Amino acid sequence: MANFSDFVPEVLAAAPDCPNPTIIRTVRAAVRDLCEKADCYRYTLEAQTVLLGSSDVELDVPAFTTLHKVIKLTLGKNTLEATSVTLENDRDPEWRTRIGTPKYFLRSTEDLNNVIITPKAEKEYSLVGEIALKPSLTATAINDVFVDRFYQTIIDGAIYKLLMIASAPWYNPQQGSQHGAMFLQGVSAASSQAQNDNTPKRRIVRYGGI
Q1: Strand, helix or coil at 88?
Q2: CB 32 within 8 Å of CB 183
């Protein structure tokens, strides 16, 4: 894991006299922004069991992260389709209690890392999938591979946020705007990379011949 405090020296160079705790909070905020805008902190769920009669399922995410977005969930052999309370109320007024083969999922409004599957499972299933994460509000570190991929974008995001604080002695909107533009470029690149990584690739086989 890479600690958010590891970013302090480089960010401090752009925002002199900024207290370390402020830099660490700002780095975490920049990482959360990147994750929310680009869906780039991808995580493959290990198989977990969904019991008979279950509907509320807690996804097993790494410590100090929270679920940002479900990319794909597969229950048994079926890929679940995203839905909403409104759609389910229109489709089936008794969806909250109905038992059958689960076909849909929606985010829980009670727990950050839970999804609701519907209908309720009529037997035991294995659940796998891919999700997008973000650091929790109390996280102090993040995955090393993520940092290696997006280090400069995180730096740009943190510097941008700090330099745009009008009441701070390091306030510098001109440089802040420059780092903000670079941060947005990094977000765009991270989003494209995440989508390409998640797109099945066509396998090309070349044969010898004339």
Answers
A1: helix
A2: no
Name which of 100, 104, 101 is nearest 90 in CA terms.
104
**Reduced to 3 states, what is the DSSP secondary structure of residue 165?**
coil
Residue 201 reports pLDDT greater than 70: no
| Contact yes or no for 161/23 (Cβ under 8 A) | no
Average of pLDDT values for 117-138? 96
**What count of Cα atoms within 13 Å lies in the side-chain half-sphere of residue 93?**
0
- CA atoms of 86 and 88, how far apart (whole Å): 5
Please provide the distance, in angstroms rounded to a whole number, between the alpha carbons at the two ends of the chain: 52
Confidence of residue 23 (pLDDT cuts 50, 70, 90): very high
Please check whether residue 158 is in contact with residue 12, taking contact to mean a CB–CB distance below 8 angstroms. no
Residue type at 47 in one-letter notation: A
Summarize pLDDT for 34-87 with one digit per residue, the tens: 999 999 999 999 999 999 999 999 999 999 999 999 999 999 999 999 999 999
Number of C-beta neighbours around residue 104 at 10 A: 20
Q: Could you give the CA distance from residue 151 to residue 172 in angstroms, rounded to a whole number?
A: 22
- Sign of torsion over alpha carbons 112, 121, 49, 103: negative
SS3 202: coil
Place of tokens 């990147």: 34
Interatomic CA distance for residues 148 and 160, integer angstroms = 20
